[in-house]
Amino acid sequence: MKKPSFHILVCNSYRISGEAQGACNKKGAQSMIQYFTENVADRGLDAVVSATGCLNVCTQGPVVVVHPQNLWYGGITTEEQMDEILDAIESGGVATQYLISE
Hints:
The protein is α+β, with helices and mostly antiparallel strands. It has helices at residues 23-26, 29-43, 79-91; strands spanning 6-14, 47-53, 64-67, 71-73. The model has no long low-confidence stretch (mean pLDDT 91).
């Protein structure tokens, strides 16, 4: 397998039992995964999108982490915000207004 240039992690609040229960899932993380996946493909980005278990920052969810830069974005609820993150990936920049960690 060729290693992708970017890995977009979307918190979907999965718990040990395998059930999605937390804040990110309740705020629409499942549809975010689909949106990111479709738009990564549409833009031709060399990226993989994955759902994660709880990332333990529920108060700032939904949370998206972009690797390899280790950028943590929070409060992502709209397609516009997701597009800004994808734009930042494309341009090699950072969507600073959504960062929750330095």
